[in-house]
Write a structure and sequence with these properties.
alpha/beta; five-stranded parallel beta sheet; Beta-Lactamase; transferase; Rossmann fold
C-alpha cells in the first residue's frame, strides 16, 4: 500500500486513499509514526477548500474512536421522506451535488447542483446502474458501488466525461438487517474549489493600484507591482530609506526582483528626476570592468577609443547607480570602488586626475558576501561600507501568495503584446502554484510568454506545461502495479509523440489506433506542443 507522508497534499492523499478503509497511518521521512489520517478529516479538508494544504494539518495523534452509530433507517421511513416534496426542495436547494442510488447501484435521484457541477442531466442517469455509467465513460469510477461492496463510507476523486474533476463522498444507509439499502453521495467540484480559492487569494492579494496604496505616488510606473505579506515590509523600508543617500545592499537569488526594488527606491528619492543606471558586474569581462565603471583616457590601452570614454559613474552623476552582482567584482577593483564610496572621487584608467561625482549607490548580489569576506574573496571594509541598509529578498517559493497575481499580470501583458486571448484553467494555476520556481519571477515571466506564443488554443491547461513542471505531482514514486503501468504508459506516449510528431504516426509506432492514443492523451493530460 502507498505510504502517506505529512507533507503530502490533501488532493494527493485522496487520490491514493485505499477504498474501504476509514483511516491510514502516516509516517515521516525517517519512517517514524506521525499519526492517523481519517476519511472524515479528509472530507473536512475538502469542505474547507484546503486541497493543496499538507495533510499534517489534519492528522490525529491518537487512534480515532469508531462510532457505534450506523446510518440505519427502515425502508418505509426512507421512502416516505425521499418521495416527499419537502425532501426534493431541500436537496435541490443545496449548493453541493447529491447523487442517490439504491442498494444495488441503480440511480434514483440527482439534485440540481449535481447537474450544474457535472453537466449530467437526471434523465441520462435515472434508473441506470452505476456500472453502466462507468462503461459508457460518463464517470470514471463509482463511489456508490465501492460503498455497496465494502459497506463503509468511501471518498474518492471522480472524473466526469467533460474532464471536470469532482470529489465524491458516499455514505451507506443501512436497513435493520444491516444491508445497504441506499447510498447517498455528496459531490463537490474540485475545479470550482480551486477557482474559489484563487478568487479568495486575489481578494487578499492583487495588483496594488497606485491610488489604493500609500507606498506608490502617482505616475511612478509601478501600477502592476505585486506585493505580498513577505515583500510588503521590504517596500515599506524601501519607501523610508529612499529619502536618504544611505548605501543599500540587496541580497537574494537571481530573478527575485532586486532590480525592480532598486528602481523603486530611485523613483521615491530626491534623485527621481535624474538618471538611473544599471551595470551587471558579472556580465562584463574582468579586464573591461574597470573601464566600464570609471572610463579611460585616450590611448590608455590597445583598442581604446581615440577620444577616450566616460565611465558609468560619470554618466550617473547626480542620479542613482545600481551595481548588480557586486560579489563578482574583481578583488583589485574593490579598492578603487571603496575610494568612490568613501570620498566620491576616482580616476579614469590612464589618468592621474581625480574626478568627483555625486551618485547614490545601490548594490545587489545573489551570493553570500559575508562568506566571501571570510574567504578573503571580498574586502571587509567595502562590505561594511555597502551594506548600511540590507534587504534580504525572499525567493518566489517562499512567496506563494504572489504566484497567482504574477501569473495573471504576465498573462495579461503577453496577451496584449502578441494580440492573444489566452486563459489558464484553475488546475493549471494550482499546478504552477505548487512548482518551486528555481528561476523565480524571471522564470515565471518566461514560462507565461512561452505558453502564450506556443499553444494553439485559448485555454492553457496542465498538459501544455513543459514536462519538467508536469513532474511536480505526484511527489511519491508509484507503489502499486497499476500506478507503475500508468506511469510507464504515459512516458511511452510522450516519447512517441516527441519522436514522430503526430498522433497518427505515434499510434502506429506504439501499435495502437489513433483514437486510442487520443483517449489516453486526454487521460494523462498530454497535449502536442508547437
Amino acid at each position: 500500500m502507498t505510504s502517506f507522508r505529512p507533507d503530502m497534499s490533501v488532493e494527493e492523499a485522496i487520490s491514493i486513499f485505499p477504498i474501504g478503509v476509514n483511516e491510514v497511518e502516516v509516517f515521516n521521512e525517517s519512517g517514524e509514526f506521525a499519526g492517523y489520517l481519517t476519511l472524515e478529516s479528509l472530507f473536512g479538508a475538502v469542505q474547507q477548500g484546503e486541497l493543496t494544504k499538507p495533510i499534517r494539518h489534519f492528522i490525529l495523534t491518537n487512534a480515532p474512536v469508531q462510532s457505534l452509530e450506523q446510518h440505519s433507517i427502515s425502508y418505509s421511513q426512507f421512502q416516505s421522506f425521499f418521495q416527499s416534496k419537502l425532501c426534493r426542495i431541500v436537496l435541490n436547494s443545496l449548493y453541493d451535488g447529491v447523487y442517490i442510488t439504491d442498494g444495488s447501484g441503480i440511480t434514483l435521484f440527482i439534485n440540481k447542483a449535481y447537474e450544474r457541477i457535472t453537466g449530467i442531466k437526471e434523465e441520462e442517469v435515472k434508473g441506470k446502474h452505476m456500472s453502466h455509467l462507468v462503461e459508457q465513460g460518463i464517470i470514471s469510477k463509482s463511489a456508490s458501488l465501492e460503498t455497496i461492496r465494502t459497506k463503509k463510507p468511501v471518498t474518492l476523486i471522480q472524473t466526469i466525461r467533460n474532464e471536470r474533476k469532482i470529489i465524491v463522498s458516499a455514505t451507506p444507509v443501512f436497513s435493520s438487517s444491516n444491508e445497504v439499502m441506499y447510498v447517498v453521495n455528496s459531490v463537490r467540484d474540485i475545479t470550482e474549489l480551486i477557482r474559489l480559492k484563487h478568487e479568495l487569494d486575489s481578494q487578499k492579494l492583487s495588483y496594488q493600484k497606485i491610488s489604493q496604496n500609500s507606498l506608490f505616488p502617482e505616475q511612478t510606473g509601478f501600477q502592476n507591482l505585486v506585493i505580498g505579506p513577505s515583500t510588503f515590509p521590504i517596500f515599506q523600508l524601501a519607501n523610508k530609506v529612499a529619502k536618504t543617500d544611505a548605501k543599500i545592499l540587496l541580497q537574494g537569488e537571481t530573478g527575485v526582483g532586486k532590480s525592480l526594488i532598486a528602481k523603486y527606491i530611485h523613483s521615491r528619492s530626491s534623485r527621481s528626476n535624474k538618471i538611473f543606471m544599471e551595470l551587471n558586474c558579472g556580465a562584463i569581462p574582468e579586464h573591461l570592468v574597470e573601464a566600464e565603471l570609471f572610463g579611460y583616457e585616450p590611448g590608455s590601452f590597445t583598442g581604446a577609443l581615440r577620444e577616450g570614454k566616460i565611465g558609468i559613474f560619470e554618466k550617473a552623476n547626480g542620479g542613482t547607480l545600481f551595481l548588480d552582482e557586486i560579489g563578482d567584482l574583481p578583488l583589485e577593483l574593490q579598492v578603487k570602488l571603496l575610494k568612490v564610496v568613501e570620498e566620491n572621487r576616482f580616476m579614469r584608467v590612464g589618468s592621474t586626475e581625480m574626478r568627483e561625482v555625486d551618485v547614490r549607490l545601490i548594490t545587489a548580489t545573489h551570493r553570500d558576501l559575508a562568506s566571501l569576506v571570510r574567504e578573503g574573496a571580498f574586502r571587509e571594509d567595502l562590505y561594511y561600507r555597502l551594506n548600511i541598509v540590507t534587504f534580504d529578498v525572499p525567493p518566489l517559493r517562499e512567496r506563494k501568495e504572489e504566484i497567482v497575481p504574477l501569473l495573471e499580470m504576465y498573462l495579461k501583458e503577453f496577451n496584449k503584446k502578441y494580440n492573444e486571448n489566452k486563459k489558464m484553467t484553475p488546475e493549471c494555476i494550482e499546478w504552477l502554484t505548487n512548482y518551486s520556481w528555481p528561476g523565480n519571477i524571471r522564470e515565471l515571466a518566461n514560462l507565461v510568454e512561452r505558453l502564450v506564443v506556443t499553444t494553439f488554443h485559448d485555454t492553457i491547461d496542465v498538459g501544455d506545461l513543459p514536462p519538467f513542471i508536469q513532474q511536480i505531482f505526484p511527489a511519491s514514486k508509484p507503489k502499486t502495479l497499476k500506478e507503475a503501468v500508468a506511469e510507464l504508459e504515459r512516458s511511452l506516449i510522450i516519447d512517441a509523440l516527441k519522436k514522430h510528431g503526430t498522433t497518427r504516426a505515434a499510434a502506429k509506432f506504439l501499435g495502437i489506433s489513433q483514437s486510442a492514443i487520443v483517449q489516453k492523451m486526454k487521460k494523462f493530460h498530454i497535449r502536442l506542443e508547437n
